[in-house]
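Hypothesis: this fold can be encoded by more than one sequence.
Test: take the C-alpha cells below, design a sequence, compare later.
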C-alpha cells in the first residue's frame, strides 16, 4: 500500500473498521504523518462524544439513505495534500487529476472501466458496512437496559469509563485525556478473567479520547486492564498495566 493510499484510511481507522493487516500498516504510518494523526484525533474525539450521548433510534429511512449515499461522499484530504494539485480521494488513494485521467484512459482501452468502478464501490460499501456494524454494537451496549457503568482516574490524569451489559455479554471502554503511547507502541485492552488476562482489542494510538467496543465476550471477566504493547498488539501482556478497572457489579 502506498503512502497516498494510507492517507485515505483515517475515517475507517477512527471507527476501528480496518482489517488487521491494514490497521498495523496505518499505525506505522501515523508515526510519520502529523496531518493524518491530527485528523484521526479529531475523528476519534467526535466518535467518543457521540458514544457518550443519549442514544436515540433514528428513523429506518434515514439509515437506509445514509448507507445508499455513503459511497458517493468524498473524504477531505489532509492539509499537506491540498496545495497545487487536484486531489481525488477514495479507497484507491489520492491521485492527481492527470494521473487519474491517464489511468481511466488506459482502463477504457482494455475495457476495464466498469470493473474498476465496481471494485471501488464494492470496497467502499464493505468499509461502510463494517463501520456501521461496529457503531451499532457499541451503541447497543451503551443503551442496553441492563448496562452498568463505572469510572475512574487513569495514569497521567486521564479518565476511563467502563459500560458492561451482561445480557449482551459485551463491554465498552470510554477514555478521555489519554496520553499518546510511545512511538511504535499502542494501548492494548485486556479482560481480567480472575487474574488471567485475555486480549480485548487495541485503542487508537493517535486519539486522546476514544470509545472502544471490547473485542470478545465478557463471560467470567471481573474487570479489565490496559498495557502498552508493540504496534499490532501482543498475545499476552508484555508490560506492567497502566490501568486496572473492576467491572461494575450493581
Amino acid at each position: 500500500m502506498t503512502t497516498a493510499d494510507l492517507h485515505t484510511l483515517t475515517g475507517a481507522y477512527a471507527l476501528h473498521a480496518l482489517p488487521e493487516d491494514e490497521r498495523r500498516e496505518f499505525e506505522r504510518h501515523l508515526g510519520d504523518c502529523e496531518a493524518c494523526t491530527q485528523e484521526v484525533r479529531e475523528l476519534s474525539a467526535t466518535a467518543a462524544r457521540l458514544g457518550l450521548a443519549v442514544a436515540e433510534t433514528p428513523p429506518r429511512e434515514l439509515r437506509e439513505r445514509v448507507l445508499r449515499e455513503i459511497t458517493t461522499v468524498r473524504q477531505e484530504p489532509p492539509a499537506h495534500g491540498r496545495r497545487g494539485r487536484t486531489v481525488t480521494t477514495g479507497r484507491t488513494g489520492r491521485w492527481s487529476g492527470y494521473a487519474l485521467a491517464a489511468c481511466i484512459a488506459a482502463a477504457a482501452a482494455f475495457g476495464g472501466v466498469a470493473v474498476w468502478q465496481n471494485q471501488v464501490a464494492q470496497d467502499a460499501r464493505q468499509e461502510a458496512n463494517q463501520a456501521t456494524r461496529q457503531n451499532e454494537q457499541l451503541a447497543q451496549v451503551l443503551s442496553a437496559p441492563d448496562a452498568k457503568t463505572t469510572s475512574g482516574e487513569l495514569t497521567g490524569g486521564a479518565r476511563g469509563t467502563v459500560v458492561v451489559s451482561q445480557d449482551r455479554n459485551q463491554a465498552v471502554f470510554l477514555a478521555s485525556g489519554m496520553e499518546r503511547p510511545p512511538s511504535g507502541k499502542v494501548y492494548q485492552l485486556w479482560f481480567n478473567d480472575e487474574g488471567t488476562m485475555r486480549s480485548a482489542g487495541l485503542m487508537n494510538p493517535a486519539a486522546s479520547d476514544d470509545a472502544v467496543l471490547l473485542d470478545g465476550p465478557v463471560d467470567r471477566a471481573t474487570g479489565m486492564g490496559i498495557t502498552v504493547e508493540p504496534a499490532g498488539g501482543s498475545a499476552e501482556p508484555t508490560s506492567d498495566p497502566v490501568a486496572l478497572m473492576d467491572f461494575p457489579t450493581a
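Residues 3-142 form a domain with the Arc Repressor Mutant, subunit A fold (CATH 1.10.10.1320). Confidence is low (pLDDT under 50) at residues 81-117.
Hypothesis status: open.
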